TrEMBL record:
Name of the protein in its database record: Virulence factor MVIN-like protein
Any one GO cellular component localisation term in the record: plasma membrane
Transmembrane portions of the chain: 7-26, 32-50, 96-115, 135-155, 162-183, 189-208
Localization: Cell membrane
Topological relation to the membrane, as annotated: Multi-pass membrane protein
GO BP: any one term: lipid translocation
Pfam families, sorted: MurJ
Signal sequence, start to end: none
GO molecular function: lipid-linked peptidoglycan transporter activity
Length: 242
């Protein structure tokens, strides 16, 4: 068996294993949440607050951005110019991060209006509306974190490193399970434990991929290099829209 084929098979096996583990933990997560919180207004408020950034993730992490980034990344990589590749990833990460920072700030500021749009029925219950908006202000930064995680995963997948990307849903499920069991009992509003778990999971999902990116001269290293040699980085970096 050739080395590339062996590497591909290992990647597929790792991805499949992580996906199976994530599905099993997802079932456990649902069971734990149902047992700890039950079916009530607070639980419904959390799911709405989680659904909104999760819905928007499809645009930034899995939609048009992904369709535009992956082909351009593959094209730049095929040229064999590592400096251009690093600069491209750095500029893409910087642009995406900047846009998402603005979107996140607007989402937190306009949380109440977003709840009206995505769950108009909550307007009839001011208490539920307020709770949902408060939870959304905690969960909304997940959009920025998960989108940057998707960017990192796209880079790693191009190098046949599939396991880390497949492991990210496992982190989310573990954080939610742990928060429901051990954090919720200590909070004044127990359901907010799940919102904080979402935020923590987003941080961890991105953080675990940074060492692998750094090892391959990814966005972190490139960003430092771009600051030290702005002219040189700009000369080598193609526009993301090319």
């Amino acid at each position: 068996m050739t080395a590339p084929r062996s590497s591909l098979l290992r990647g597929v096996a790792a991805f499949s294993s992580m996906t199976l583990l994530s599905r099993l933990l997802g079932l456990l997560r649902e069971t734990v949440i149902a047992a700890v919180f039950g079916a009530n207004a607070a639980t419904d408020a959390f799911w709405v607050a989680f659904r909104i950034p999760n819905f928007m993730r499809r645009l930034f992490a899995e939609g048009a951005f992904s369709l535009a980034f992956v082909p351009v990344f593959a094209e730049v990589r095929a040229r064999g110019d590592e400096a251009a590749l690093k600069a491209f990833v750095a500029r893409t990460a910087g642009t995406l991060g900047g846009v998402l920072l603005v979107v996140t700030a607007l989402g937190i500021w306009g949380a109440r209006a977003l709840v009206h749009v995505f769950a108009p029925g909550l307007a009839e219950d001011p208490a539920r509306l307020t709770l949902t908006a408060d939870l959304l202000r905690i969960t909304f930064p997940f959009l920025m974190l998960v989108s940057l995680t998707a960017l990192a995963a796209g880079v790693l997948n191009a190098y046949s490193k599939f396991a880390l990307a497949a492991f990210t849903p496992v982190i989310l499920n573990l954080c939610m399970i742990a928060a429901a069991l051990w954090l919720a009992p200590h909070l004044r509003i127990p359901i907010s434990a799940l919102a904080w778990a979402i935020l923590l999971a987003g941080v961890l999902q991105l953080a675990i991929q940074l060492p692998a990116l750094r090892k391959r001269g990814g966005a972190v290293v490139a960003a430092r290099g771009a600051r030290r040699r702005p002219g040189r980085a700009q000369d080598h970096a193609p526009d993301a829209a090319d």
